[in-house]
Design brief:
Blueprint lengths: L10 E6 L2 E7 L5 H10 L1 H4 L10 H4 L5 H13 L4 E7 L2 E12 L5 E8 L8 H14 L6 E6 L4 H9 L3 E12 L2 E11 L7 H7 L4 E2 L1
Parallel strand pairs: 5-6
Antiparallel strand pairs: 1-2, 1-9, 2-3, 3-4, 4-5, 6-8, 7-8
Length: about 210
């Protein structure tokens, strides 16, 4: 046990058009699947992610995963992060991360995600985000969760709207992404804005069902 609410956690299952979506803690043995997807989907993922040091293939080789896994797990044990794998029908297909968790009077965090290109636009990211948000506002005990997205990333903006995020403003030259400082939209949500749960709202809209 870590002593921090919400970690570790297994969330779901939630059924969408693509299949059954679940969230679970990242594992050391995710290395192969993580590397294959990240390298295969480089053109799909790189335009939206922070600039990294070195070539994409080298940074996403399976040998890079143990260090990343260890760092994320260390942050989780300290209560600052919740790093989860997204599974579709039991297979690794992406990640969802809750980061910069702050307690006390603020009780906030950011949330981010990525999914494989071949499961995009099929409800997987929306379901994963709904499960993650309910965990944040429930077991983790947060009051506010925020996310950022590039104005050009219309697909991700649709996912964020689907779960109820509202736009709060434009952060100019906010983050070094794909080799340049990029503007990002800031979106947010507080617990008072949710009637029931985010997942319930998704189910009522016909976009998902409990598996």
């Amino acid at each position: 046990m870590t002593g921090h609410p919400g970690w570790p956690a297994e969330l779901g299952p939630l059924r969408v058009a693509a299949g059954t979506v679940t969230l679970r803690p990242i594992r050391l043995r995710d290395a192969g699947a993580w590397s294959r997807i990240r390298i295969r989907d480089q053109d799909h993922l790189r335009p939206w992610e922070p600039t990294g040091a070195g070539p994409w293939d080298a940074r996403h080789h399976a040998s890079s995963w143990p260090g990343l896994w260890s760092s994320l797990r260390s942050e989780a044990r300290k209560g600052r992060m919740i790093p989860l794998a997204i599974e579709l029908d039991g297979s690794f297909c992406g990640q969802l991360t809750v980061g910069s968790i702050v307690r006390g009077a603020l009780r906030s965090a950011w949330i981010g995600y990525w999914v494989a290109k071949d499961v995009g636009n099929r409800g997987v990211a929306t379901a994963a985000l709904a499960l993650g948000l309910d965990h944040c506002f429930g077991t983790v005990g947060l009051h506010r969760v925020e996310a950022t997205v590039r104005p050009e990333n219309l697909a991700s903006q649709a996912v964020l709207r689907n779960v109820g995020f509202r736009e709060e403003g434009l952060l100019q030259r906010y983050l070094d992404v794909d080799g340049a400082w990029r503007d990002h939209l800031l979106v947010g949500m507080t617990v008072e804005e949710i009637a029931g749960t985010v997942t319930d709202r998704l189910i009522r809209s016909g976009k998902a069902s409990w598996a």
